[in-house]
Automatic annotation (TrEMBL):
Cellular compartments per GO CC: cytoplasm; ribonuclease H2 complex
Protein name: Ribonuclease HII
TM annotation in the entry: none
GO biological process terms on file: DNA replication, removal of RNA primer; mismatch repair
Enzyme Commission numbers on file: 3.1.26.4
Binding site for a divalent metal cation: 40-41, 132
Pfam family name, one: RNase_HII
Species of origin: Listeria cornellensis FSL F6-0969
Family classification: Belongs to the RNase HII family.
Amino acid sequence: MPRFDVNRRKKGALSAQLEAMKYYENEARAKGFQVIAGIDEVGRGPLAGPVVAAAVILPADFDVLGVNDSKQLNEAKRDELFDAILAKALAVGIGIKSHEVIDDVNIYEATKLAMADAIDSLALTPDFCLIDAMPLKHCEQELSLIKGDSKSVSIAAASIVAKVTRDRMMVAFDEEFPGYGFAKNMGYGTKVHLEGLEKLGVCPIHRLTFAPVKNIFLATKG
């Protein structure tokens, strides 16, 4: 009986969290908007690999519990929610910009390009966009929310889709370019990754404009 009570309280808390995270979507619907997309990205900070953005349009009655900022969830929970989001979403779009694009235009601009691609790849055209942190100026109507992935269920869903998509790419890259620990660090500058850089030099997916990759690349080239 006590265990049942704990589970019931936990479910109640998750239900309350879900309703709270629908606030911005409900506000937009109250103003007459009907197709509301949440947009988020992952991969701005790593030394290797792409930046990945996702755009997600959820139904008003979306009922999957536990959707939150992907950084607050473990891998197993993210994978579970990823499948649930894909099953329940009205539309999902992905945008990917490679390390070459990042080096060419800078990470901020590459992130905006990935977000725009994610929106453009949606099967439905959103009439309102909720975007994590950065103003995009790609949607007719949009709202940028600081820490939006913990405030909006649509942005949180996008953060999970983007994170799982990019993580799976980095696991595949780890097999192609072993020695940097990509399957675990996802391209971030961990001790194992930095040791791999020192030992092996840069690989084809490293961001050459990011220190310390840039320094190692220039030293090797010189």
